[in-house]
Design goal:
The structure holds 2 protein chains of 2 kinds. By secondary structure, chain A is of the alpha/beta class. Chain A is built from 9 helices and 11 strands. Chain A has a domain at about 30-70 and about 125-260: FAD/NAD(P)-binding domain (3-Layer(bba) Sandwich). Chain A has helices at about 10-30, 40-50, 85-95, 110-125, 150-155, 185-190, 210-215, 225-235, 245-260; strands spanning about 30-35, 55-60, 80-85, 95-100, 105-110, 125-130, 130-140, 145-150, 165-175, 215-220, 220-225. In chain A, strands 1, 2, 6, 7, 8, 9, 10 and 11 form an 8-stranded mixed beta sheet that branches. Chain A has a 3-stranded antiparallel beta sheet with strand order 3-5-4. Chain B has a single domain (about 10-275), classed as Collagenase (Catalytic Domain) (3-Layer(aba) Sandwich), CATH 3.40.390.10. In chain B, the strands form 2 sheets. In chain B, strands 2-1-4-8-7 form a 5-stranded mixed beta sheet, sandwiched between helices. In chain B, strands 3-5-6 form a 3-stranded mixed beta sheet. Classes of the chains: A alpha/beta, B alpha/beta. The interface of A and B includes residues 195, 202 and 236 of A.
């Protein structure tokens, strides 16, 4: 008889390993430099850059999977496009691409998305997936100082059987990278602390620049990135090109760094 | 008719369009050829020029940025300019007022609000009808239409100053009906563009420069006569609502002013304002 492939260890050891490692990390990230809500391309990009700068970054993602819409380009076709100069980000990530037309580049969605996730993980970003953003922590002068979270399934089950209170995480800065929903900004709006314009109805071909240019701090302690920017400022709809998401995430990181250095 | 109209002594052309799409020298040459009695003065982007010339201080930039942010049309079916702009919107305007960078396209502004903001910047010696100010911009401008209670993207607005929008040329006049039908039926936009591109002006289209000249004619005719348009579909003053109408009026072989407007132009040639005193 040959040797066994795997070493021994019972179910209880497996369970203990999961619990202890999860608890250790969760406890560590109850306090962080920046919490990013949403693990789509802009959130991942921002997290990767901030972590590379030595900051402690926690990303909250309501789905089990990371990457948001970056897996698929449009109409369920898994090719993603970026306009110049965003192909430089693909170069940095080591994602192969081809030039579909002048300054428009196309890459394999799964390849691009998995490389971006890996880059964020390699940089040291930690994640809470299957975790939904529930509310904000506000401190003096309504500065954003953290988020309240819960398990995603809690929201989808009848209230009678899911009276599960959320928990809170403290941080110096929050980035709303939740896409068109702009969940974090919306929560502030519900409290009358900010106004948003709403999702732009008009389609203009060249509006990617606007998303990047409007990326910034919308309320003390809250930066908005990616398509959430569109919702806040009512910018026009865009086609399924991801250059603006990647560069908006990059700009959000740059702004976050400035804020954190000041603070 | 003769004697009622005057050509301006000076035509100021402000080029705030994408320099890759619009060459000022080419447009200036066109104006000089058609309005030989006027001095044609090509200037940089309107705001850059006047803010620099008046030595604007920081507060003036902020004031202007806030006004521009307030003139944004957020919802095409609502008319509301009393909203307080978001700080990020003001910052966005400020950033581009204070730099030489080309402002990105996509925000829709109310054209008449922008015209008022611009007219506020003129120095008194140039705020006279003998000077014709024409602004070329890459920004999207719209005006409210009382008939259908919607804001519509416009190619141009005529007044003091007149404004011509290069993105308005692309986004304003409607593309062929079949194009929209294809979109509705879920056809791929890139293939639609390929199929219909000869029938409408797109971004980076080399035909744009020639089309602008027709709108320069309209601005000058507004300045001289008070009416920028002509009902003749073959005249360069035709107010096109469809791209194909625009291309016909501006680009068909031999595109020109109609007989009546050619006659007006010839009649005012050599008659500057002082000739009529």
């Amino acid at each position: 008889m040959g040797e066994k492939i795997f070493s021994g260890g019972g179910e209880k050891e497996v369970t203990r390993a999961i619990i202890s490692e999860f608890a250790r990390q969760f406890e560590e990230y109850v306090e962080s430099d920046c919490i990013i809500v949403g693990a789509g391309p802009s959130g991942l990009m921002a997290g990767k850059i901030l972590c590379q700068e030595g900051l402690k970054i926690f990303i909250i993602e309501r789905n089990n999977y990371l990457g948001g819409g970056f897996w698929i380009g449009g109409y369920l076709m898994n090719k993603v496009t970026v306009r110049a100069p965003a192909q430089k980000v693909l170069d940095e990530l080591g994602v192969p691409y081809t030039e579909a037309s002048h300054d428009l580049f196309v890459a394999d969605g799964p390849h691009a998305c998995s490389k971006l996730i890996a880059a964020a993980c390699d940089a040291g970003v930690k994640f809470a997936n299957m975790t939904v953003f529930d509310d904000l922590i506000l401190r003096e002068e309504n500065r954003v100082a953290g988020v309240v979270i819960n398990w995603t399934p809690v929201q989808t089950l009848p209230r009678q059987i899911t009276c599960v209170d959320p928990v809170a995480l403290e941080t110096k800065l929050v980035i709303d990278a939740t896409g068109h929903d702009a969940c974090v900004v919306t929560k502030l709006e519900e409290r009358g602390l900010i106004k948003t314009v709403g999702y732009g109805a008009m389609w203009v071909e060249r509006s990617e620049d606007l998303v990047v240019e409007h990326t910034g701090e919308v309320h003390p302690g809250l930066v908005v990135a990616g398509m959430a920017v569109s919702t806040v400022y009512g910018l026009p709809r865009m086609g399924p090109t991801f250059g603006a998401m990647l560069l908006s995430g990059k700009k959000a990181a740059e702004i976050a760094l400035k804020i954190l250095k000041k603070g | 008719m003769d004697g009622d109209f005057t050509v301006p002594s000076i035509i100021h052309l402000y080029n705030g369009a994408d320099p890759g799409e619009v060459k000022s020298e080419d447009l200036a040459a066109f104006l000089k050829t058609n309005f030989p009695e006027s001095l044609v003065n090509v200037r940089e982007d309107f705001f850059s020029y006047w803010l620099r010339r008046c030595g604007a201080k920081e507060e003036r930039f902020h004031y202007l940025a806030k006004n521009l942010a307030q003139s944004r049309v957020h919802h095409p079916d609502k008319r509301n300019f009393s909203h307080e702009p978001l700080p990020g919107e003001v910052d966005f305007e400020l950033k581009f007022l204070m730099s030489d960078r080309i402002k990105p396209v996509g925000v829709l502004y109310d054209g008449f609000q922008v015209m008022v903001i611009c007219s506020d910047l003129f120095a008194p010696d140039e705020a006279i009808w003998d000077h014709c100010h024409i602004i070329l911009t890459n920004q999207l401008l719209g005006t409210w239409d009382e008939n259908d209670c919607r804001c519509h993207i416009r190619v141009s607005l005529y007044g003091f100053p007149s404004i011509i929008s290069t993105t308005g040329i692309v986004e304003g006049p409607a593309r062929p009906r079949e194009y929209y039908l294809g979109l509705t039926l879920g056809a791929n936009q890139e293939s639609l563009k390929k199929a219909f591109s000869p029938r409408y002006v797109g971004y980076g289209d080399p035909r744009l420069a020639e089309v602008i000249k027709g709108y320069l004619f309209q601005a000058l005719f507004y300045h001289m006569t008070g009416d920028p348009f002509c009902h003749d579909k073959g005249c360069r003053l035709f107010n096109a609502h469809w791209q194909e109408e625009m291309l016909y009026a501006q680009l068909r072989p031999g595109a020109a002013l109609c007989g009546l407007h050619r006659q007006i132009l010839e009649s005012v040639s050599g008659k500057k304002k002082q000739d009529f005193k």
